Amino acid sequence: MGMMGSLLLVLLLFCIASAAVSSPLPTILSDDTKPNAYEVLESYNFPIGLLPKGCLGYDLDTDTGKFSAYFNGTCSFSLEGSYQLRYQSTISGTISVGRLSDLRGVSVKVLFFWINIIEVTRHGDQLEFSVGIASADFTVDNFYENPQCGCGFDCDGASFSSPLRIKLRGSRPF
């Protein structure tokens, strides 16, 4: 290998080394950079209190809005002292700005029956919870804090209060 061959080999090695140093390393995103379920709710214009404390994780298809959120077991608590809510260990549905639809895994107790909440929509400062034939409106400020399983928003003896308005769809309130 003559002088010219050695020079070409050195230049080739120099070019390879320069490319390796100057090319950016791939960015690896860890789960620490993924927003938590409560932050995702806020990004869709919902208060964090729609989910009780203890959400373990979630899956979200940002193209379709389909999601699943996971808890360590079933969670129930009272809302406004009169409505009992229950979250299954997995809840799912579709999320878009100001609307949760096709909900599964969230229910409200009416008299002696558990009825599925199928949709939550935000209208200004009101959240409308729909069970299909009826809906109930609550002010958004009721949901700035996360409820806790068992005691809801009244875990320290102080409860949030706001006017409760029930709006009928059809002829039956819930």
UniProtKB/TrEMBL annotation:
What residues form the membrane-spanning segments?
Answer: none
Q: Which Pfam families match?
A: DUF538
Endpoints of the signal sequence: 1-19
Keyword Signal attributed: yes
Q: Which UniProt keywords apply?
A: Signal
Gene3D superfamilies xrefs: At5g01610-like (2.30.240.10)
Provide the protein name: Uncharacterized protein LOC105057462
Provenance organism? Elaeis guineensis var. tenera
